Amino acid sequence: GCHGGGSSQGGLNLGTVTHNDVITATGSTTGGLVVVPNDAAASTLYTQTTSSPPFGNQMPKGRPPLTTEQQNKLRDWINQGAANN
User: Fold this and answer.
1) Cα–Cα dist 3/15, whole Å
2) What percentage of the chain has pLDDT greater than the value 90?
3) How many Cα atoms within 13 Å fall on the side-chain side of residue 83?
4) Are 17 and 34 in contact (CB under 8 A)?
5) What are the E-state strand segments in 6-79?
């Protein structure tokens, strides 16, 4: 709801985007890449979903946090190269 359907909170829109759009997106809050393949710790898409994000609030804002399983899947996908699969 916050990053899709025409909304781009924090400069990130994950609505109708391609894999390449996600891999090359930068966050307006940090100016860094949203996904850094092979490095979840440097990827704001992952770090903002953890219980102690490096800046701002844990995402998704105003909704239940991702489960540990969901966080682990996201982390593993990024750490394995963020393949288009």
Assistant:
1) 6
2) 26
3) 4
4) no
5) none
pLDDT digit string (tens) for 59-79? 877 788 889 999 999 999 999
Of 19, 22, 20, 4, residue with least CA distance to 63 = 4
Name the pTM for this structure.
0.73
Task: Give 48: exposed, middle or buried? Use CB within 10 Å, 0-12, 13-18, 19+.
Answer: buried
**Going by C-beta distance under 8 Å and a sequence separation of 6 or more, which residues neighbour residue 58?**
48, 49, 50, 51, 52, 65
In total, the chain counts a number of residues equal to: 85
The Cα–Cα gap between 55 and 29 comes to 9
Alpha helices in 1-85, H assignment, sequence order: 19-24, 44-47, 68-79
Closest among 33, 32, 28 to 8, alpha carbons compared: 28
